[in-house]
Write a structure and sequence with these properties.
By secondary structure, this protein is α/β, with parallel strands linked by helices. The chain is about 25% helix and about 20% strand.
């Protein structure tokens, strides 16, 4: 397929993203070309725009869904063995290398970066979702989206949900009847809410702000919400959680906020023998007060998680398609064309959008 593709390009910290044009390469036999439908603006992307050491140029966009526009002659099936054809909607990733240590033990491949994190300084250039077309390298990992599944619901499967699902497995799951507190009411927090409900939590309490996000959390199934604008201090929020849990605290806390004080707060509210999953702490704030004796004295099982293996993408897709009944499509609140890519980033950063998506072909 000849021609060019417009893309939003990160050209360095503190600078506006630029819309540039790139050549569309010929599709190799084991590759494919995706016409992008939606790519979510992630906090990781926004943080990079403020990080002087962030590599560039890069076409961001790692939470993606698109339509197969050109299919290489050797790429006949998706990872589940279902036939692929041009026109199919797909979720995709680079194939793991299968040879590094992480691949060997079943963790995320650290050799092949995902689309949206690959420098755009050499061909094939267009390997991020904020582009009209995205080129999949040789032998990519592709899963066809079921015909009955909405594009928005399929995209939400790879926004927070798969990562949280991975993390919940790491802490031993959530048992039917347990109480879960989710710290943070952003996209990852909503993923944690979804997954806690899927696993049978009796009660899920979401801590966050602003009010419209907490209202969305209630629509997604939250049993209670705690506003950080009403309960402004960690002490007030801990006291409120204790009131809501008969003084015992929750069995599980999932940190999705990224706030500097969140981990100490979560450890202070969790009950004895509880499990604590830290998802949101990707920014290095430097020194911060955490009392590790709480982990010992409360016998807390604590784990962090970053991303997921492909197993959890498949499981998340299936959960979204057949188990999650909440109207998750409502979480995608803002749509932007490429020409408004900087406005899309602003809508994420100022909390105006729950999930902002780029629509490169609008």
């Amino acid at each position: 397929m000849a021609g060019t593709s417009k893309a939003g390009v990160f050209v360095g910290a503190g600078k506006p993203l630029e819309v540039q044009e790139f050549p569309i390469p010929e599709v190799a036999p084991g590759s494919a070309l995706i016409k992008m439908e939606m790519a979510a603006v992630c906090g990781t992307d926004v943080h990079a725009t403020h990080n002087p050491s962030a590599p560039h140029p890069i076409i961001f966009g790692h939470e993606n869904i698109g339509v197969i526009a050109d299919l290489g002659s050797e790429l006949k099936y998706d990872v589940l063995g279902r036939p692929l054809k041009e026109g199919d909607r797909a979720i995709f990733r680079p194939a793991p290398c299968g040879r590094c240590y992480n691949c060997t033990i079943g963790n995320m491949c650290r050799v092949r970066p995902t689309y949206g994190l690959i420098p755009a300084d050499k061909p094939p250039y267009i390997q991020g979702g904020f582009s009209q077309y995205l080129y999949l390298g040789d032998d990519p990992w592709v899963v066809r989206v079921p015909d009955e599944m909405s594009t928005e619901r399929a995209l939400m499967a790879v926004i927070g949900n798969h990562t949280v699902m991975n993390g919940i497995d790491k802490i031993g799951g959530i048992s039917v009847g347990e109480t879960v507190v989710v710290q943070g009411s952003g996209p990852i927090g909503m993923g944690a809410l979804n997954q806690a409900k899927v696993m049978g939590a009796k009660r899920v309490i979401v801590i966050g702000a602003p009010a419209d996000r907490l209202q969305l959390a209630e629509e997604m199934g939250a049993d209670d919400t705690v506003s950080i604008l009403e309960y402004e201090t960690p002490e007030a929020r801990i006291e409120r959680i204790m009131e809501l849990t008969d003084g015992n605290g929750p069995e599980v806390v999932i940190e999705c906020s990224g706030a500097g004080s969140a981990v100490q707060e979560g450890l202070s509210m969790i009950r004895f023998g509880g499990r604590y999953l830290v998802v949101g702490q990707l920014t290095d704030y430097g020194d911060r007060p955490i009392n590790p004796s709480l982990i010992t004295r409360k016998a807390v099982l604590l784990s962090g998680v970053v991303g997921s293996t492909y197993k959890y993408i498949l499981r998340s897709m299936e959960a979204m398609n057949s188990v999650v009944k909440a109207p998750v499509e409502k979480l995608i609140t803002h749509h932007f064309p490429l020409a408004e890519i900087n406005e899309a980033f602003e809508s994420h950063e100022n909390l105006e959008a729950m999930v902002a998506v780029m629509r490169p072909n609008l």
